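DATA SHEET
Item: assembly model
Revision: 1
Owner: S.N.
Input lines:
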Amino acid sequence: MSAATSVPISLRMESRSRRSEPAADPRPRVSTEPGPARLLAGLPARGQWRSLARHRAQYGQLPAPGTRPNGRLMEVIERSGLTGRGGGGFPTARKLRAVAAGRGERVVVVNATEGEPLSAKDALLIAAQPHLVLDGALLAAHAVAASRIYVCVDRRHRESAAALRRSLAERAGREAVGCDVRIVDTPPRYVSGEETALVHFLNNGPAKPTLAPPRPSERGVDRCPTLVQNVETLAHLAQVASFGSDWFRQAGTAAEPGTALFTVTGESGPVVLEAGLGSLGGDVLAAAGVLGAAGAPPAGVALVGGFFGTWVPTAELARTQLSRDGLAPLGAGTGAGVLALLPAGTCGLLETARLLRWYAGESAGQCGPCAFGLPALAGTAAEIAAGRARGEDAARLWRWANEIEGRGGCRHPDGAVRLVRSAFAVFRPDLEDHLAGRPCEGSHHPVLRVPASSREWR
Amino acid sequence: MTGRRRFRLVVDPIACDGHGVCAELLPEWIRLDDWGYPILNPSAVPPELFRQAKWAVANCPKLALSLRAEGASQRLRQPATPVR
């Protein structure tokens, strides 16, 4: 629920759409189109548990853990071209090698925090494929010769933690885990999912980012070389280890191979889909069932990459390939795989203002340009949305965005800057009306569900 | 004194508290944003400003400012394990 009653109605955090009935299944729908379905292939029905035995029947046994890094496994991952699926897109093999080359004990951190509010893919993966995720973590540990694995789950996501605990319990006594695996509950904050923040938290500090260098791969948990990987990345890793790098490269593009999970949100709730990287946006949106009548051009605007993403007109998204190369010309990226569709009539400036308020609330407050700059951006954006701002206010917002960029200790403020820039580009006609004191009708109707920010860091 | 090595001024944004001493000592290279935090010229510090740049680094109350040699990857950082 929104905090102060003095917040203008247009900035109320909860959207006014109907709340879902308590009896409805809150989990997202899943589609195996456009595919190919790999992570989402043969998922158990809702509420059903795929046992370890059935999982092993499909994937085989894990290799015995060794005391030295496994170069052969790292080579297979390198040939596959697998990159991070948590938003960073960093080549996985390069990270593995950096950690394996480190001195002393090595640690693996599984990032299951899924801080992006609109993303549902990681939670789905953990609920439906927990053994695949754990295999991925153990294989990564095996690759870098790590002796400890921390699985970090947002403490609000109790179902995910329960599924992981159940999977671990199933293994105990049935197969040698070979590694100390602990499930850790993390604070419900967005930046807490950043890799240095997770390391900071595991080092008994607050879950706030620290300055890098050194990166966690160099010095992380207990000063050990630490590998931090998203759950989806690890699930792909487990499949590559089982089915090979050639198989992995049969999907996606040459530059960006493999499949990725996407969360598409429209009017009827989120859908999680799997598609080869480079798939056409229109194919993914159609498979999610969010495009209008066949033949009608898509209307409205999309938030590509989630809250940390970029505004793109839906029609343009539909004809763009979903890959780094495809989206870069639009100033966008796949990010955490979120495609949030807003219908025609939505006020993009209102939604931008609400998102900037969220950005300000999620700041760790460690760096001046972020701690002061984001609330300033949010305040002026709200005035613009309400039609109370004029040209010089917009110019000041633009200047602030340019000055804030790159001056935080992490990439959090850069997301706000990107949002402002894409808003100015995509909503330029609306902007001119708003600055002339003529806010649009949509500015009275918030659409996006923007969660309230917690104050917990430990 | 520096030979041919070139240096850039960098700030640790987490350590920086916006005291603004750096901008006072080196206004040719550092200005403050609307909230009092330093915006540094990202180019290599020219020879005639180098001595003053070192003076600014030495006088930062939070030791947040440093000179980084071009090509070097290390810069002033916080400890990975916080001091209790």
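QC remark: The helical segments of chain B are 21-25, 47-59.
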